[in-house]
């Protein structure tokens, strides 16, 4: 018996077949190569068919399929994925179900899959209350609360990039939210560029590129050589990340706060400093019970989480209980 | 068939017997009269017994009991209630179960009961995603997410009084949290007192009392006569309440944000202004789907919610579904 996890990204499709105990039997990656709309759905369907019917898995047939999507998975089976052209409201469940036949399938958002992957095989194993704070180009959170993924009225819960940290509102926050404006990968690059313009006297490493081309990774590299602008930007982000972790601890009373996404990565070394900042603000009993950790699965969290959601589906269908009674 | 709801407060015990459709058949209130520890539990038990066995309900016998407690209801049946001396870890479930005999019983925190009451008979009817922001002497939140009360790893979720809104941390926030320090009833009184000390030239109505005796209600009364200190304090609170609502909308994607507790009350007139502030910061799709409203049940939300949790218990035991599939 095996599980198929599929992780759709903006440019590629990752797939892996897992044992029910989380060992990878097979994995592969396909490029989307500019596919749009229904062609992306068909690529997913043909990949499912090849895994279900292929000779490779005859001894361990796929019993359930999970798909991670880079956007919103609605309970009616429709998917909104801003980076896949034509997926404003794409009927992925209907499309993929045809390929699955009798095999059960579930679709989850990438942020939900990230925390589910960490709960299954990463740094939040067996937790029923754990949050994945995904800090990449943007910021979002996958929230497992009391053993269930938090969905909300319109399936868009976890939009933590919009968290307000006070001060005066500025129109520039409107497109992405206050927290994301400053403390995402894009925010780090943007802040460095803004500071360069304000400091014509600065002669450091960040001057080697036009301000508009500076990346988040340039800022981390400059930080390593004690660059003053990079230090100011990163120190500010540590405060924001710490306050966000504090607010999550106070609201959700989570056991694990997992920091992941492309920025963690290089920012993982700051987790102790983020913890010191979070401790100032958080509800103290909740903070004492919480652990702040880097993600364990890196770029594979999505495909692990997709497979785990397939395992959850099997457990529900068979009235079994998973460790931690995660549903 | 009827339901018994019990609402324990710091100084009194409210009780009401309800029909399953939410009509009150009987209600009464007992003063704790300085009772402590086990004596409070015994008062609850004797009240349960009199409702269960009393002649008054022979035609509509009590089928389930719910209790709202002013603190934390742990899943092991123990209760922590800071305002009841001796209730650091009181075995209320064991005590009250003896009085109930075969009748099922459930204990919930007061903030959970407030949102459940509003979901049953108030301004959040039939919602599966709704939050009660209780602003009284302190601040807390009762959170219904995807049809379930959010509990967290240690049953202390919803500690929103600790929400950080940025700026520099000050030690004075340590006892109650940043949000509560400024925007609770105590916070409103404290801020007014601090401003009085900073403004020896001020000659308004708030000078009629020693600064240490000013109450939240004095500040609202002064606001009504255009007092400049009261206006500054209340305007600041509107910003805090708005940011908190925004953060809840972004994280939980709730349909209803219910503002209650003693401060709403007098602050209910500011809900439109709070909405304008919240709209600036919140995730825009989520905000469009959300409605910000005053609590409908006032001081009775707890007893309604306690009865509703009893109804939930009956529904679960009988495999029935309540409106909105709230569990």
Characterization of the model:
Chain A is of the alpha/beta class. Chain A has 2 domains: 2-120 and 299-325, ATPase, nucleotide binding domain (Nucleotidyltransferase, domain 5); 125-295, 2-Layer Sandwich (Nucleotidyltransferase, domain 5), CATH 3.30.420. In chain A, 38% of the residues lie in helices and 20% in strands. Chain A has 10 helices and 12 strands. Chain A has helices at residues 37-53, 92-100, 110-121, 178-183, 185-198, 216-224, 228-252, 271-281, 284-288, 301-317, and strands spanning 2-8, 12-19, 24-31, 62-69, 72-73, 79-80, 105-109, 130-135, 139-145, 148-149, 256-260, 291-294. A 5-stranded mixed sheet of chain A has the order 3-2-1-4-7. In chain A, a hairpin with a 4-residue loop joins strand 2 (12-19) and strand 3. Chain A is globular and about 65 Å long. At the A-B interface, strand 9 and helix 7 of A face strand 9 and helix 7 of B.
Distance from first to last alpha carbon of chain A: 20 Å
- What is the N-to-C succession of helices and strands of chain A? EEEHEEEHEHEEEHHHHEHHEH
CATH overall fold name of the largest domain in chain A = Nucleotidyltransferase, domain 5
Considering the protein shown, what is the CATH homologous superfamily of the largest domain in chain A? ATPase, nucleotide binding domain
Number of folding domains of chain A?
2
**Mean pLDDT over the full residue set of chain A:** 94
Question: Could you give the topology of this structure?
Answer:
The structure is a homodimer of 327-residue chains.
Chain A: E1 2-8, E2 12-19, E3 24-31, H1 37-53, E4 62-69, E5 72-73, E6 79-80, H2 92-100, E7 105-109, H3 110-121, E8 130-135, E9 139-145, E10 148-149, H4 178-183, H5 185-198, H6 216-224, H7 228-252, E11 256-260, H8 271-281, H9 284-288, E12 291-294, H10 301-317
Helix pairs in contact in A: 1-2, 3-10, 5-6, 5-7, 6-7, 7-8
